[in-house]
Amino acid sequence: MSRLVWDETGDRLYETGVSNGVLYIQNEDGTYQNGVAWNGLVSVSEKYTSDSHVKVYATESRYDTFYTYEDLSLTIQAYTYPREFEQCEGKLGLSHGIKLGLQKRKKFGFCYKSLVCNDVSGTDYAYKIHVVYGCFANPSDVTYSTLNESSDTQTFSWDVTTTPVETEDDLQPTSIMTIDSRDMTPEQMHLIEDALFGSSGTDPHLIEPTEISSLLWEAGMTWSRIQEVVNDGTIQDYKKVGSTINIDEWSDGTNSYSMPWVIAEYEDSGNMILKSKYAIPTNGIEYDPPQAAYYTNAAKSSGSYSISIGEDYGGWEEKKSVYFATQASMAANDQICFDSLNSINDDPTNSATVSIYAKNGTSAKQTMTTSNNKHITLVETVLSWSTAQDESYIDKARGTVCEDLHNKGNLSISNFIAIPSGSDTLYYRKTYLKTQGWSASYGAAFYNSSQEYISGFSNFSGGPSYTTGYSDNYYSVSIPEGAAYVRFTILTDTTTYNNFNPKVTKSSSYTTTYNPTATILGTSYPHARNPSSSLVNCIDAIVNGSSSWSNSLLYNWLQPAGRTNSRTSFSRPNESGHFQNSGFLNGLSDELKSVIGLTSVTTYDAFAYVSGTLKQFDTSKQASMNAYIPSLSQIYSEELKPENTAIEYYKKLARSANNGGKFQRNISYSVLKEYALDNPSQAVTYRLRSSTGENASDTFAVDSTGKIIPLAAKESSYIVVFIRILKTT
């Protein structure tokens, strides 16, 4: 035991000062708007009164006295006030710059700081923050006087009554909360002041008495401790659905950001689902970069190449060929990419940029532009005498072999010449072909794959002389639909007919279709990539990227280190060079990553081949992910239902947004707006993982107004990320 000591050094305390005033206007629903600074505070007086006190008597004497319904009132004096406070004085705007008085006054919340001083540190010793709720102002009289030698600055004064609010732990309702820095850790005071006064990542807002325990709970909290309270179930005592956990940062490799998480849901099993409070910048990571059009399965020499287009699709026209010339040879597994195409409606044959990359290379080895060629029938020495029939001709009207010519010894017919698939035009130069001079019946004919007649043609003798070109130096004939073979009537001896004297013998080859230096690379494009083909790729994927979430670059970017999906020979690394298999998770702390559990994610690919038939939304893909972005069905619960059930967080938002309880397409919802982690005041577009089904590579997204939109795979965007903390015991 010891004797009391008075006025020890450091214990001589006193209080003074008033500063850091903040006004929070109350909405009609009882919530409070974001705070605004109140400058020019002179004083704040707190007055406590009781409506009545009750004296209790027993055994003929006063036994006790207790007070009921104690109230708090304030008197605020200031040189000025926020303009927003005019609503609390009953002044409302009639038009810009015009206010009408004697209107309904709004309630407000209020906070201010006072100093706790001592004989050692003075005013730097400690401080208190006073938070007052349910305030109703009664302005005092204001006198405006003429300026004179003794004029003083006008001060304003308000008598304020308060209405108590609910508290925690069965305490009585109150209208004031006082926070004393002497009893708090610096981390706790930092959290409180960030909430009340705002920070780079938090708007200033009024802390309710029911929220303070949850807020202070984060001070000194770790993810390991959170795992413990998830396991024992007590976390729901501190953190309600919709509240925030802000104890960590996220780094994109260059910059670090405060990374708050919103509790989206507590599952029946006890697991906790967290949603990133802000949209995460992907820093150039696209949904999936455009894929290579072709890859070289073997080395190819430099020269001219022609790629056939098999069907009309956007700007890709059937019976055109993408023609380009390489300056250097290509190694095995090199990739041929269309770098300049921004849409499938762009014409790949019209000066499009073609670049050659090494597999997974990020820099082009060579670049050239395209031009258009017709499909070329690439056949050399097409006429041979092995199956030709002497002393006969082709009847162009029937395709039959005829022998009723008076001088048939001068004619012969060719063998059946195969027409390469996809060809549309046959080119021929000056050759020893013949129809004119005897009969319009003599000529050539096209046949189907069964060598049955389709149509005939004539007038093919005496074309211009051979040169290296083909456009003006060859005759041409269009190849009819279904044609697989062609046969010609040929002049075979030295007899002159119509001054045409070939002077050749039977052992020679008599005609050659146009054969440029180009070689067909690959085959025709289908509308979607056929997984069974090693040469054919999807036009959508060439322009926009993969149609598959589980094969996309963004999927990879969300995965842990060492966990990759199967990439193909068409797959391109991200254009910006930021690709990392674990890009997002690498930015989180090791402690947070250690408590994140797997979530099963189901996603429908846009297109799929089934037994050779193209089908939309035919197959779904499942993946177990540590971090995932929501699907359309998880926000808009009526859409694409197999892509996981609606997230409870979005169900509540939908109920608050409309009476139907579901979000609807083509409507903007402010509750769906998300703001950027790297710029919290900027609303941004964030991508979902669901394909639109319109183009194989596009996905849905939510734009900066809260409206669902399609977004091309090639476009970079922000993402909203979900993670799950599993109850492990």
Q: How are the SSEs ordered, and which strands pair?
A:
Blueprint: E1 14-25, E2 36-38, E3 41-58, E4 61-78, E5 92-95, E6 98-100, E7 108-118, E8 122-139, E9 156-162, E10 176-180, H1 186-197, H2 212-217, H3 223-232, H4 235-238, E11 244-245, E12 249-251, E13 256-258, E14 261-266, E15 272-276, E16 280-286, E17 294-295, E18 304-308, E19 320-325, E20 335-338, E21 353-357, E22 366-369, E23 371-374, E24 389-390, E25 393-395, E26 401-402, E27 411-413, E28 417-418, E29 425-428, E30 442-447, E31 453-457, E32 475-478, E33 485-487, E34 489-491, E35 519-520, H5 539-543, H6 553-557, H7 583-586, H8 590-595, E36 596-597, E37 599-604, E38 607-610, E39 613-616, E40 620-625, H9 632-635, H10 648-657, E41 674-676, E42 679-684, E43 686-691, E44 699-702, E45 708-711, E46 716-719, E47 722-725
Parallel strand pairs: 18-35
Antiparallel strand pairs: 1-2, 1-7, 3-4, 4-9, 5-6, 7-8, 8-9, 8-10, 11-14, 12-13, 14-15, 15-47, 16-46, 17-20, 18-19, 19-23, 20-21, 21-22, 24-27, 25-26, 25-30, 27-34, 28-33, 29-32, 30-31, 30-33, 36-47, 37-40, 38-39, 41-42, 43-44, 44-45
